[in-house]
Structure formats: C-alpha cells, structure tokens
Amino acid sequence: MEMQRSKHENRAEEEKPKRRRQEHQATCPFYNYEQLQLLRDQVLVGVKDIEQLVTLGKEARACPYYGSRFAIPAAQLVVLPYQMLLHAATRQAAGIRLQGQVVVIDEAHNLIDTITGIHSVEVSGSQLCQAHSQLLQYMERYGKRLKAKNLMYIKQILYLLEKFVTVLGGNVKQNPNTQSLSQTGTELKTINDFLFQTQIDNINLFKVRHYCEKSMISRKLFGFTERYGIVLTPSREQPNLAGLQHFLQSLQPTVTKTPVTPVEDGEARVPRPASPLMHIESFLAALTTANQDGRVILSRQGSLSQSSLKFLLLNPAVHFAQVVKECRAVVIAGGTMQPVSDFREQLLACAGVEAERVVEFSCGHVIPPDNILPLIICSGPSSQQLEFTYQKRELPQMMDETGRILCNLCTVVPGGVVCFFPSYEYQRQVYAHWDKSGLLARLAVRKKIFQEPKRANQVEQVLMEYSRCIKCCGQAGGTVTGALLLSVVGGKMSEGINFSDDLGRCVVMVGMPYPNIKSPELQEKMAYLDQTLPRVPGQPPPGKALVENLCMKAVNQSIGRAIRHQKDFASIVLLDQRYARPPILGKLPAWIRDRVEVRATFGPAFATMRKFHREKSVPS
Fold it and tell me: Would the keyword DNA damage be found if you checked this record's keyword annotation (predicted)?
C-alpha cells in the first residue's frame, strides 16, 4: 500500500512533517496499469488457479492480486470463498457486484455458522490497552496539526477504549499483563445495556465508525508505529514486531528463522492485527447492530490481558438479506444439507424472503441401494444399553462396550474403519481406558490404530500413513487386515476428507455430538429463537430444535465421508439408541434414512454386518 502511492502525492495533514524534507517513496514495480491490463486479458483466456496466476504475474511483471480483480467485471463466472461474498466490506473491496447476479453457495451446510462467525468479534483487554497507548502517543505527537473535528473523534475513540477497559475491571494506564481482576466470570448483556453500563450511550458510534473508515486511522497508526518504533504497551517493554512485519520477514529466502510452533485447537488464541485498532474498529461496527440482533459477552479471566469483550451475532439474516435482495437468484447447495429447516427459518424467512420464492430440491445418491448398510445399534455384545449422554458416557462399562463393539466389527470389515467420537477429550479418555484394560491390544491384532492429531500440520502425514497401511495390509495378507482411525466430529477428518473405497469401508459414530448446552452463546441463541420464531404444534421449541439440528448436521457431515463414488460401498454404524427415535431419524439424509436398519441387540446387527461385507468383498 505504501509503494502504490506516487512519490509526488501529498501526505495527509497530520502525517506531513514540517521542517523535514519529504522522503523519496518507491512505487510498486508490479502495479503498472498497462501490465495489469495485459495480465487481466491472460486471466480471462482460460481458468487459472492461484499458482498459475502467480506464474503469469511474474512473466508479465504485474501483480496477480490486482490483475485477477481487474478481470472481475469482464468475467462470466467468478469463484471465491463465501466468507468474501458474505462480508459486505470485503465484497466491496474486492469489486464484487451482486446486482442481477446468480449466486451459487456450495458446501453450504455451515452457512449460518459462517455468517455468525465473520460478524462476531472478540477483543482482548491487551488489545484495548495497546490501542489506547498507540492512539494516545499518536495524538500527543500530531495533536497540534490535527483539525478540531479529527481531534474530537480521536478523543472519543480514546474515551471508548478507556471505558471498555474499565468495564472489564482494569486501568488503561497500567500494564494489562500485571493487572489482576477482583471479579471473574462471564456476563452477558444486550447491546443497549452494555452501552449504558460503559457510559458510552451518548456517543454516536455510527459517526465514529464513519470517521475510522474515512480517515483510515488504524492504517495510519500502523505506519506511525513502524516509522517511529512506538511501543504499543503502556509498560514500554518491547517494540511492535507483530503482524505484517513478521510476515514480510518470513518472505526473505536468505533469513533462517526458528520454526513457529503451530497453534493447537485447544488454544483460544485471538488473532492480533499489526494495529490493534483494526480489530477494535470491527467491534465498534458490531455495536451498531440492532439491539435485538446481538449480545455482548464480558469475559473476565483473572488478568486483564486474558479478559475479553465479545460481540455475538444472533440474527445472521440481517447480513444475508442484502445478498438475497440484490441477487437475481441464490442457490444454496451441498451434499449434506439436512436438516434444512434452519436455512428456511433462521436465514431465508428472517431475511424477508417470501415462502413462494423458496424452491427446495433433494435427490437420491448415485450408489445402488445395496451398496450401503446404515445400522443403528441400541445395545452392545454384553447387552449394555448404548446411550452416550454426558452423565453416562464416561462410565467404564460404556467405554468397555464401545471397545468390544469395535473389536467385533474389525474382524469382519476389510480395509479401513473410521470411528468418530464427540470430542477430543472423550477420545483421549476412551483411548487411555482401552490401553489400561487391554482392549487396545485386542484391536491392534486386526487393525493398526491411528489417532486424529490436534495440530493441522500433522493431518496429512497421519492420512498418508493410514492409507499406506491399508494398501500394504491388502497386498500382504495376515492377521492385520487394515487400519482403524479414531477421529473427532467437527475435527479435521470430519469435513473435506474422502475416505473412498478401502480407506473407509465402515464409519462408526460413537454417541450423539450435541454442542455444550451450558455455553452462554448457545443459551442466548436458543432463547433468541424461542422468542422470535413461531412455535409449531407438535414440534420441539425452536431453541431445542437448534441443538438437535447442530448435532445432526455434524453427524451427517461425518458419516458422508465414506461413500465417494458410484461403485463405492460402506457400512455406517450409529452407536446410540437415541438415533432410533423418529425425530432424530427424520434428520438423517434421505439416502441413508430410507435404508437404515435398527437393531435392538448386537447379535443380529453383527450378523448383518458380516453378511454385507462378505458379499461386497467378493470380486464381481
């Protein structure tokens, strides 16, 4: 952005040093209009992926980032991540115009969660203090050169930041890392209540937001801290080396750096932009949402730096309404969209879409009916009833029965078996229990055991070893007939991974992966739906239906990993008697629901499994 500016361009009033000679600025050699026009034409000749765009950019000495955007107006089809499509500011920045267009949203099973996620914002106490310190030093340096109106807005932002820190129980003048909070816990507020409690209800946040966008103050602060080496924290202990600076350093091929430890799933690490004010601007924008459509969560965690303010969007339809309104048509598509009631009620109806505009189409699967065996097993080999509720699932007899079921299944299923657990913690507990009881050793006689890693950079390695093991066992023969992969619902193996052919001849779902009902966010969402959606006679309340739908969407996404082409075959085993209940059965995809078999005891279920895999394993 710095290099795009012309060297003759005048700087902004507050940035222009008086008694200093203007520094020479280099213009970006890849941001040339003629070169970009040539690259645009090449982009439109044929479909290019990102790597090919980079290669073309190097050859044409034109930026592929801007070249691809120059091609958008002339393109007939634009493919982009739907996070970019659904966020209005990002959409406008990329030059995407929706008027009269047909929008196709693929893999839309998590569309509601995506809209909620990209419009929910969390800021930490540390970020608030850093932004206050940064902006205060900026004002002290340039205060006399700023227009009165600009100075007024900067003082308003400083006041907002101070009040945000105060409501968490801290002080902006002290180091957030050393500030202990007397009050801990989570508090949930409506937007209006939060504004009154923080005493900022007299400030026009719409005008503050407009000033931030127009003045680009957060970008100026980043340039200011980089130019003068300003320390962001009040303690003045370390220089600002975060964000873009680290990224630019990582691009230097000659510099050898210590590899960064990857972040694990369990670590709730908040992304820190180079200028913390960028993140806080998003929070201020969120506070302009209508009172009924969002909530603010105050999380006090012992120290100020660990505490946070989070805006939770309750009504994703307010952001989807603009897409629906502008487009000629919207197609929401996916392989596992069931249950679809969420899309109709929470997204389309709330966005003002008339019922007659909504056309629902669902088709069967390409595989023959006898290539799939969905089984619901209600009890195990020792007649233990299978009901993996939070209260029962950690009982030793439940974990033992799960192990015995898998031992039996692994004797009749060739190739790979993928077993999904509700959480990483429960998978760890079961694995440790099996290791202690000897069940793990029994399983290892028939299948080599793999576990889904928590770190994303290890997934590919585990999958390669899992695949190699199945291939080797199929060729070598012997007692080990394949591999068993222990995975987690909602983890890295439950979406986007294909366990086709021998990689997934059986998918086992242990229990029902209900979300944490004690989560303040989920409780507030349930209460919101109960208040806003009509109650249908004979149906559960909308809040309870949400919990069931979240669970079954996760189940459908996981069990769909096995059948990947027309000649594929697999068995699907659901271990929990609650799956046999009609309301739950009704939320399975039609191609599974129509063929599902419920077995009250394990003996008949095992016989059916053995017969299915014996027939399918014989070459035709």
Answer: no
Main-chain dihedrals φ then ψ at residue 491, nearest 5 degrees: -90, -160
Dist. CA 357–CA 363, nearest whole Å = 20
pTM above 0.85, yes or no: no
pLDDT tens column, 523-535: 999 999 999 888 8
Determine the 3-state secondary structure of 547 from DSSP: helix
Q: Can you read off the two tokens belonging to residue 297?
A: 């969560």
DSSP secondary structure code for residue 180 in this structure: B
Q: What is the greatest pairwise CA distance in the chain? A: 90
- pLDDT of 228 reads 62
**Sign of the torsion formed by the C-alpha atoms of 194, 545, 317 and 513:** positive
Average pLDDT of the residues of the chain: 83
Dihedral angle sign, alpha carbons of residues 250, 256, 262, 263: negative
- The strand pair at 121-124 and 102-105 is best described as unpaired
Query: What CA–CA distance (Å, rounded) separates 388 from 372?
Result: 25
> pLDDT for 82-103, tens place per residue?
888 898 888 888 888 899 899 9
- In the structure encoding, which two tokens stand for residue 500, read together? 């086709």
Enumerate the H helices of 203-316 as residue ranges: 205-215, 217-228, 244-250, 276-286
DSSP state of 317: H
User: How many Cα atoms are found within 13 Å in the side-chain-facing hemisphere of 33?
Assistant: 0
CA angle 346, 351, 357 (to 5 degrees): 100
Cβ–Cβ < 8 Å for 544, 535: no
| Phi, psi (rounded to 5 degrees) for 91 | -60, -45
Contacts of 161 (CB under 8 A, 6+ apart): 128, 131, 132, 135, 172, 280
Mean pLDDT on 428-442: 93
Tokens of 454: 């928590």
The set of residues, in sequence order, having a beta carbon less than 8 Å from that of 374 and lying 6+ positions away, is: 559, 571, 572, 574, 588, 592, 595, 596, 597
Higher model confidence: residue 584 or residue 369? 584
Query: Residue type at 548?
Result: E
Asked if pLDDT for residue 264 goes beyond 70, the answer is no
Give the C-alpha separation, 374 to 598, whole Å.
9
Q: Which amino acid is at 322?
A: Q
Lowest mean pLDDT among 76-80, 323-327, 350-354, 584-588: 350-354
Q: Look at residues 420, 397, 422, 414 and name the one whose alpha carbon lies nearest to residue 515.
A: 422
Neighbours of 13 (CB within 10 A): 11
DSSP letters spanning 386-442: ----TTTTTSHHHHHHHHHHHHHHHHH--EEEEEEES-HHHHHHHHHHHHHHTHHHH
Count, residues in the chain? 620
State how far the Cα of 13 lies from the Cα of 359, in Å rounded to an integer. Answer: 55
Q: Tell me how far CA of residue 311 lies from CA of 119, 286, 289, 294, in angstroms.
A: 8, 7, 10, 7
